[in-house]
């Protein structure tokens, strides 16, 4: 019998579902002592992949920083809002594969349709803003902003368009994860109830 699935009356397990170390030391020596590895209640402890969980938690911030780097250098090298959004979306996909449906919600508290709407609004307003000054739509300019201790910082206005596209792509990926993941989990629950 799996010690994680036993009740407190069966083998002397703790009320949280974890066996106490003194009751079954051989079966529980490799269980995590603290819940920092799991985003929530694990559906099936036998299907848990500890290596994937730890790796995704280590790589997630690094991939997001790389996506922001791609976003910022999009006009001076390969990159931009679309490719940066795809890289950030892949980070969320990796996090979803490791932790399930509870993990992306723990990372992003904004609903995906709101994120898509904000991204689309920023992109459209940035594209139409030059028309207010008599320039053609999607015209970009270079802004020079003085930053203390760093000197002058040059920002291309099309960066704001890329930020909008970035938010839009991340929102689409999160919405796809929510939609497809809920269907997969529903099918898994149905298959588990049938057996």
TrEMBL record:
Q: How does it sit in the membrane?
A: Multi-pass membrane protein
Keyword Transmembrane helix annotated: yes
Locate the region Disordered. Answer: 1-28
Q: Which InterPro entries match?
A: CPA3_antiporter_subunitB (IPR050622), MnhB (IPR007182)
Superkingdom of the source? Bacteria
Report keywords, A-Z: Cell membrane, Membrane, Transmembrane, Transmembrane helix
Homology family: Belongs to the CPA3 antiporters (TC 2.A.63) subunit B family.
- The protein here is known as MnhB domain-containing protein
Q: To which species is this protein native?
A: Pseudonocardia charpentierae
């Amino acid at each position: 019998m799996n010690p994680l699935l036993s009740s407190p009356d069966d083998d002397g397990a703790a009320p949280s579902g974890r066996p106490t170390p003194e009751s079954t030391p051989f079966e529980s020596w490799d269980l995590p002592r603290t819940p920092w590895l799991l985003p929530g209640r694990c559906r099936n402890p036998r299907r848990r992949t500890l290596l994937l969980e730890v790796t995704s938690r280590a790589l997630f911030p690094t991939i997001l920083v790389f996506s922001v780097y791609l976003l910022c250098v999009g006009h001076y090298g390969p990159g931009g809002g679309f490719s940066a959004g795809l890289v950030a979306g892949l980070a969320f996909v990796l996090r979803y594969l490791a932790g399930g449906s509870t993990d992306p919600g723990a990372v992003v508290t904004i609903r995906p349709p709101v994120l898509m709407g904000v991204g689309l609004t920023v992109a459209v307003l940035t594209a139409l803003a030059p028309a207010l000054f008599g320039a053609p739509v999607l015209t970009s300019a270079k802004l020079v902003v003085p930053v203390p201790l760093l000197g002058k910082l040059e920002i291309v206005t099309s960066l704001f368009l890329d930020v909008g596209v970035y938010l839009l792509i991340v929102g689409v990926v999160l919405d796809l994860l929510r939609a497809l993941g809920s269907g997969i989990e529903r099918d898994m629950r149905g298959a588990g109830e049938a057996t």
